[in-house]
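User: Okay, second chain of the day. Same drill as before: sequence in, structure tokens out.
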Amino acid sequence: MKFVVVTVLFLLVLLAFSFIVTQLLAFNARQKLPAEGRFTEVNGGKIHWTEQGEGETIILIHGLGGNHHNFNYMVSELSQKYHVVSIDRLGSAWSTREDFSYAPLDAQADAIVDFINKRNFERPLLVGHSLGGAFSLSIGIRHPDKIRGLALICPASMRIDNTPDIFRDLEIHSSGGRQFLAHFLSGPFGLLKQNRFLTEIFKPEQITPDFDINGGAILSRLPSQFQTTCEDLIAAKASQDDVVSNLAQLNVPTHVIFGEDDVILDAKRHGVAFSEATGARLVLIPKAGHMLPVTQPKLCNKFIDDVMLATNAN
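Assistant: Same drill. Structure tokens below.
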């Protein structure tokens, strides 16, 4: 009996310690990267967003577990020519989400369209990275009149049957389990996995040294972000056929750039096969991986310039 009591007390102390670490890491993240933009209420929550520059509007949409800071390496140069709007998707970073029903691909896409309407942006170009590409495709299929076209960077564009290894621990289907892990265990869990996770998503390129702050990675330590990432992963897998089965209806100018050695999303499937299925123009970058907005910002900006010229010609 004494052994049981001691064991329970030990586990409670560990849990309390983990909770404190999680909350301290979240507090530190909030202090280092506070909300710097504006908030717009949309269907399903509030979108936090920033804007720079003048001219034709470009909206940058981040991927799974990301935030608007992921595009910081591109924005300074890009905003010299265009009005660049960078958003935190529903529930990510400083944006809010009412509940899990607003996590599926089409629901988040509709929230972005609502945002476009409320800000009176006239047919912006959507730039979607990774999972952000799937939301962009949903908009292109169902709301083509709202945008001028799609510039997709390493997009999740085709059906994904097997979750990439690095994300499998986040497939937590219990709502209570997600909340418990987010608030009590995500801090130590994140610290233990951080280096391996970043190494994988950047492969074969090196991790950018300032990605923690300039790239916004530190915001992944927010309990709300951990929960959102889990929900986004589960909802995307469950709702992906709503987008993929309707690719034949995609009728907006669509361009794709992909790192040939991307280990998160297969360039042959999500780049080459997608291009063959939809007629999208494809650019493949040798010896490059999944994080092109961070590792190859000038190349991404040149890609966007070319897309803007092509859509102007159309």
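The chain has one domain: 2-313.

User: Thanks, on to the next one.
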